[in-house]
Amino acid sequence: MHQVSTRVFGQRLKAAGIDLTPIQFAALDALRAHPGIDQAGLAEAVAKDRATIGGVADRLEQKGLVTRIVSERDRRARELTLSEAGRRILAAAEPVVTALQHEILPGLNEAEYAQFVALAAKAAAAAEEGDTTA
């Protein structure tokens, strides 16, 4: 599933002229929801380790999609916010990502698709809470 979703995501965004990886899209989406979040918080928000998010933040900053400043609360931390270009590319990517979601789960009817999404969300929420019982 991961390989299929990554492949479809890349193909559809590339066809739309958008240069974002799935993790970059997730990071931009999280930054929209939590402007000024630090890199550690962003790592937690997208379920990646801090080193990975550091590299993602570097690339997004190089693309001009985010701004990164030293936190006034903790001089060791870097706070991230979307730039105007980041807001524009996220707005352009969202309809493409929404449209490809059914393509990632071929062979499911609407009820099955909704059930899959609900079960995946339930499992993700339980994993975040550390609940390993079923």
UniProtKB/TrEMBL annotation:
GO terms for biological process: response to stress. Keywords: DNA-binding, Transcription, Transcription regulation. InterPro entries: HTH_MarR-typ, MarR/SlyA-like, Tscrpt_reg_MarR-type_CS, WH-like_DNA-bd_sf, WH_DNA-bd_sf. One of its GO terms (molecular function) is DNA-binding transcription factor activity. Residues 1-125 form the HTH marR-type domain. PANTHER family: TRANSCRIPTIONAL REGULATOR, TRANSCRIPTIONAL REGULATOR, MARR FAMILY. This is HTH marR-type domain-containing protein. The lineage of its organism: Bacteria, Pseudomonadati, Pseudomonadota, Alphaproteobacteria, Rhodobacterales.
